[in-house]
Each structure stands twice: as C-alpha cells, then as structure tokens.
Amino acid sequence: MRIAARFNGPPGSGNGGYACGLLAADLRLAPAEVTLRRPPPLETDLTVVRAETGGRALSGDELIAEARQVAADNPAVVPPVSLDAAAAISKEYPGLREHPFPTCYVCGPDRADGLALFPGILPDGRTATPWHVPGDVSAVTMWAALDCPGGWSVIGPNGGRPYVLGRLAAWIEALPEPGDTCVVMGAHLGGAGRKADVLSTVYSPKGTVLATARATWIALP
Prior knowledge:
This protein has helices spanning 16-27, 83-90, 139-145, 148-155, and strands at residues 32-36, 47-51, 54-59, 62-69, 120-121, 127-132, 163-172, 181-192, 195-203, 209-219. It is of the alpha+beta class. The chain has a ten-stranded antiparallel beta sheet.
C-alpha cells in the first residue's frame, strides 16, 4: 500500500479519509472502520497485514493504521440541503479565510488538483458543499469526500483550530457518475476533551444517499 504525494492532508502526510479508504480497499473490507495511529506517510511502501476481521498497515515496525469490519447498518445521515443552498453556503467556507492545512487534497483552497470540497457552515451548525465528481472517482475517493466536511463542523466553529482525523467508519452504497455534482453534508455530534464526533453524508444529484460516515476528530495540542 502506498499513498501518492498528491493525496496529502497536513503537509508531509496523507489525507486521513483517503488513507483510511485505501487501507479498507486493500483489505476488501466494506463497510469498515479505520483508526489512524500515526500520520500516514506519503510515497512510502506500507506493509498490510491481514487478520480474520480486519488488518493493519505498518511502516517498518511502526503501526500506522488499523481496520476492522463493521455492521452493515448505516448510521444516521446528515439531513441534506439543496444544491443551490450548498453552493451558496460554500462561498462562506471558513477555510477560504484561514485554513490549518491549505494544500489538503480534499478541502485545501490552495489546490488546483484536489476535490475542492469547501464546506460552509449553516445556521444550525451543519456543513454543506457541492462536490464536482472527478473522472477517476472510486470507493477510496468516497472515503476522502466523507472526511473533511464532517471535520469542518468542528474546525469552523473553533476558529480554525487544527483538528486531524483519528477514526473513520464509512458505508458506501453507490458511486456517483464522473461529472456529477453531489452535495456533501457534515454535522458535529458531540465529544469530550480533544475528541469530536461527527457524521458526514454524500447525496447524489437526485438526493439519494450515496455514502455516509461516522468519524472521530482530534484537536492538536
């Protein structure tokens, strides 16, 4: 397993959602939950060790991530808004003003070749953004798309304080068509201390649920 440099999150490490999805895909786990134990390194050959109900990714002897199968039942979805509403609120994306990792593959405004998911914050705290689906969309891309919109439901209200993904569980029902414009939603559920629990959901142009995820984000010290 190898994370190409273009799929970065924080500088020098992989985007959390992409890295989680890559491990789940390599292990052929669906639905799956992946826990990141270290920042996933870029352009590094990681050893994938399979187990009966999941597996691990290692860099030498260092544990990078662990994955396990989860129940088929989806978590609750984040209620959607229309594409027009998502497009309007996306113009107020806090990361356009201040972003802890502006070159992030998923949500970084300084990327010309990323997913360009810019989640604005709705009055009730949910986040919403349009997503113009790339031609190379895959299950791994869906994991990435489910990542940052949930995180910004915490990062935005906390003035851009850096958070990183700690754990992500994803349920993917179907892939969108290349060129589709979907809506991706996020919501903060709660948490304690430095941990925040969030949900995220990808909706098709017709308003059907394509994928949903449950995640834990961790505030950096």
